[in-house]
Design a protein that fits this description.
alpha/beta, globular, single chain, 5-stranded parallel beta sheet, binds 4'-phosphopantetheine
Length: 164
């Protein structure tokens, strides 16, 4: 990828990817040269899905977007971004309550690397209440999440919960 291209990293747990994440990826891909959706490998939050499963679901959901790629990372996000030649970190903001944590991360990342800028993208209103955590809880309790996640994710959630 030439250095002049605007590459952005969209990092997260994506356990699993939701329609809210997907909306943000589509909107970002519309204005940036390349978006790398990067899922955290050793997540202390004990993800329901393995890194490979999370990456597969993201790849399936973004297969129609030629300037979006999927990867995983470990260690510091700033080191990974530098490795990928990215100068932008994308994060979605759903509500004011997200802002405090997101600001803390953005400022810490800036402290670690002056080269990187964090771009906050407001979530679309219809997804402002959505999170992977709430989707997993509803699905685990037998609720219908098919309007909230891509179809293959919904199927995998049902399969995962019926096998637990
Ligand atoms: O979807 P999440 O769980 O809110 O994503 C959090 C994530 C993966 C972006 C954050 O935990 C992260 O960047 N982890 C990598 C470790 C790191 O660089 N920490 C210092 C920055 S605060």
């Amino acid at each position: 990828m030439p250095a002049s291209k605007q590459i952005a990293i969209y990092p997260g747990s994506f356990d699993p990817i939701t329609n809210g994440h997907l909306d943000l990826i589509r909107r970002a891909a519309n204005i940036l040269d390349h978006v790398v959706v990067a899922t955290l490998r050793h997540d202390t939050k004990h993800p329901l899905f393995t890194t490979e499963e999370r990456m597969e679901m993201i790849s399936q959901a973004t297969s129609d977007l030629p300037n979006v790629s999927v990867d995983s990372f470990d260690g510091l996000l700033v080191d990974y971004a530098q490795e990928r030649g990215a100068r932008l970190i994308l994060r979605g903001i759903r509500a004011v309550s997200d802002y405090e944590y997101e600001l803390q991360m953005a400022l810490m990342n800036r402290q670690l690397s002056k080269e990187l800028e964090t771009l906050f993208i407001p979530a679309s209103e219809q997804y402002s209440y959505l999170s992977s955590r709430i989707v997993k809880e509803v699905s685990r309790l037998g609720g219908d999440v098919s309007a909230l996640v891509p179809a293959p994710v919904s199927a995998r959630l049902s399969a995962k919960h019926s096998s637990l």
